[in-house]
Design goal:
CATH class of one domain: Alpha Beta
GO molecular function: phosphorelay sensor kinase activity
Strand order of the largest sheet: 2-4-5-7-6
Shape: flat
Helix content: over 70%
Catalytic activity: ATP + protein L-histidine = ADP + protein N-phospho-L-histidine
Keywords: Coiled coil, Membrane, Phosphoprotein, Transmembrane, Transmembrane helix
Order of helices and strands: HHHHHHHHHHHHHHHHHEHEEHEEHHEE
Largest sheet: 5 strands, mixed
CATH topology of one domain: Heat Shock Protein 90
Strand content: 5-15%
CATH architecture of one domain: 2-Layer Sandwich
Number of helices: 21
InterPro entries: HATPase_C_sf, HATPase_dom, His_kinase_dom, HisK_dim/P_dom, HisK_dim/P_sf, Sig_transdc_His_kin-like_C, TPR-like_helical_dom_sf, TPR_rpt
EC number: 2.7.13.3
Length: 665
């Protein structure tokens, strides 16, 4: 009887094995065809996933081939997926330390590639690794990380997977309230995405309710899960559901229903050769028949014993596969150690050769030095070198003095332009204050006349007008005061400390100051000349975050770029005629780890031969007396050396120029 049962189970068990073999054969056939290397890496990972439960040694061979190929072609995303699969195979075979090592390597590569999908799946697998070692706290930590990445991707499938595993974790700890909470969340996600495997969440919910003794809810979820298990052919879970139903009916004193579902559990387990569940079903049937039919109970008990013996044999085969797998890994480790040893020997030999060559060179140099006789000539050369050094130092001092004068001139020019802009800004509120003061004086005269005449209503009306005028005087006085405070703030020496700065506000503030300064300078230069006008177009990113910069230094950079842009469009307007519209565009945007400021004009443009020189100190294209050649050089140093950013120029001669400043976000 025992032998017959074993043969039947083995024959039935060939069905899923044949299906798996068919899939692996299909994948191997595709690998024999010409494929892109990246596709081949992903195919090898899929083949490893197909074989990892039945043939872990063969699966690992495919995974290692995929890893070598991914590393050779620099395919980071494929390498991360391969390492994640390798960690799972190590976990299945009980190599927990190497599983942890492979998963952590997968996370390192995935982080470099910013592959959030692999990060979510690998953290979930790390959680499963710690579940198998009953380290519940660490497993929950990694499941939570998987959920964070799933939320960043807004991927309900990954979110559902991590949440379901958290419920399973808490159920194993018999923390049933927490288990129920996460199982319900996983079920809600499955319903939301219309998941095909939602029956797994239903079965988990049923098991939690069963452990809590809430049998009606457990029965309801078991019955909802069973049709889906049948539809998807998940006989492993279906057999378990029937078994759990039978236990619920036993606990609620419904022996007939318990017997019915125990037999169905046995039937499904036998059809799929799930020997462990066959053993459990036989043992449970023996327990159910014991009070009413001892003979039948004994028969089922014998069948359970026979199946258990065959299960032991299956475990021995699995253990043998694990031993074979571990031995293969040990041999590969030994081979890698041997290769590393040979590499070290080669390196030592190379270093030894270099040391010998260096010693020979030192000996030859020493002998050569001893052969030199011209001590007098050498002393003369030293004297000449000393004289040249003195001249160079004198020239350097003169150059530094000249440079300091030019820098001071540049600062004074910038201050003059800034002052002209602020003077234009402050003129408006001062005009308002003067005008309303004069009107208020007239109102006071009228008020006295009306008061003397006894016209109370007119007196009150004039008092109201006077109050309004005084309010406007106060308002514009405060506005002028704020402009003065801003002027003092801009003129204060920079502390060099970086603070969170609203780059949009800074760019908008300085474009206005630069424009009014240009207009004031243009008017002062030639009163009969038409006053300079220019269209300003801004496109500021409303979601731009505050940036850690020295605000006054970046303001100087922006002021310099704006002044150059206005100068360029003014020069072109003198040549282009009436149809030309001078325009300056200013925009900000956020890149991955940078904040970008673009200043573009439709001016004269920069000729290509001199474009590479514009950031050099003292180089200028302006006429003598109009530029020091230090503005762009200082701006470039502030951006690159002071803030770790970049500054680039793009220009088409006759069409315009664009400066692009990138600062770390």
């Amino acid at each position: 009887m025992r032998l017959y049962l074993l043969l039947v189970c083995l024959c039935i068990g060939l069905i899923p094995v044949m299906a798996q073999q068919s899939l692996s054969d299909s994948l191997q056939k595709r690998l024999s065809e010409p494929l892109p290397d990246t596709t081949r890496v992903l195919m090898l990972e899929q083949l490893g996933r197909t074989l990892m439960y039945s043939q872990p040694v063969v699966a690992m061979q495919y995974i290692q081939e995929g890893l070598r190929l991914a590393q050779n072609i620099g395919y980071g995303r494929g390498e991360a997926r391969i390492l994640n699969r390798m960690g799972t195979i190590f976990r299945i075979t009980g190599n927990y330390d190497r599983s942890l090592q492979a998963h952590l390597a997968a996370i390192s590569v995935a982080e470099a590639e910013n592959d959030l999908d692999v990060l979510a799946r690998t953290n979930n697998n790390l959680g499963n690794l710690y579940v198998e070692q009953a380290n519940w706290a660490r497993s929950i930590e990694y499941f939570n990380k998987a959920r964070v990445f799933a939320d960043r991707l807004d991927n309900d499938e990954l979110r559902q997977m991590a949440t379901l595993n958290m419920g399973y974790n808490y159920a194993n700890q018999t923390k049933l309230d927490s288990a129920l909470k996460y199982d319900q969340l996983a079920y809600a996600l499955g319903v939301k995405r219309n998941s095909k495997d939602i029956y797994i969440e239903l079965s988990n919910l049923a098991n939690v309710y069963k452990q809590m003794g809430r049998y009606p809810q457990a029965l309801s979820y078991y019955r909802q899960s069973i049709p889906a298990c049948i539809a998807f052919g998940d006989n492993r879970l279906l057999s378990q559901m029937y078994y759990e139903l039978a236990e619920v009916f036993q606990k609620t004193n419904r022996p007939d229903s318990a017997l019915h579902y125990a037999r169905k559990s046995l039937e499904v387990a036998k059809s799929s050769a799930i020997l462990r569940k066959v053993t459990n079903a036989y043992a449970f049937l023996s327990e159910l028949y014991e009070p009413t039919d001892p003979r039948q109970a004994l028969a089922y008990l014998k069948l359970a014993s026979a199946t258990k013996d065959s299960l032991v044999n299956e475990e021995k085969v699995k253990n043998f596969q694990n031993i074979e797998f571990n031995e293969r890994m040990r041999q590969e480790d030994a081979q890698r150690l041997e290769e590393a040893y040979r590499t070290r020997i080669t390196m030592y030999a190379l270093v030894g050769g270099i040391v010998v060559l260096v010693l020979i060179a030192l000996i030859l140099y020493r002998n050569n030095r001893h052969k030199q006789k011209a001590n007098g000539l050498l002393q003369k050369q030293r004297d000449e070198i000393s004289a040249q050094r003195q001249k160079a130092e004198t020239a350097l001092v003169d150059l530094k003095a000249t440079q300091a004068q030019l820098i001071q001139k540049e600062k004074l020019a910038s201050l003059g332009e800034l002052t002209a802009g602020i003077a234009h800004e402050i003129q408006n509120p001062l005009n308002f204050v003067n005008n309303f003061s004069e009107v208020s004086t007239e109102l006071l005269d009228e008020l006295k006349e009306e008061a003397q005449a006894g016209h109370t209503d007119d007196v009150l009306a004039l008092a109201d007008d006077l109050r309004q005028n005084l309010g406007k005087i106060t308002h514009h006085g405060k506005r002028a005061g704020s402009i003065v405070r801003g002027m003092l703030e801009h003129s204060r020496a920079s502390t060099g400390e970086k603070t969170p700065t609203n780059l949009n506000a800074l760019a908008d503030e300085y474009i206005k100051l630069a424009y009014h300064g240009q207009r004031a300078k243009d008017k002062a230069g030639d009163p009969d000349r038409p006053r300079f006008t220019c269209q300003i177009v801004t496109d500021f990113d409303p979601d731009l975050p505050p940036v850690q910069v020295v605000a006054q230094d970046i303001g100087r950079v922006l002021l310099n770029l704006y002044n150059n842009a206005f100068y360029a469009v003014e020069q072109r307007s003198e040549q282009a005629g009436e149809h030309y519209q001078p325009t300056v565009w200013v925009s900000t945007r956020r890149e991955t780890d940078r904040v970008v400021v673009c200043v573009r004009d439709n001016g004269m443009g920069i000729p290509e031969p001199i474009r590479a020189k514009i950031f050099q100190p003292f180089f200028t294209t302006k006429p003598t007396g109009e530029g020091t050649g230090l503005g762009l050089s200082l701006s470039y140093d502030i951006v690159t050396k002071g803030h770790g950013g970049t500054m680039e120029v793009e220009s088409v001669e006759g069409e315009g120029t664009q400066f692009v400043v990138r600062l770390p976000a």
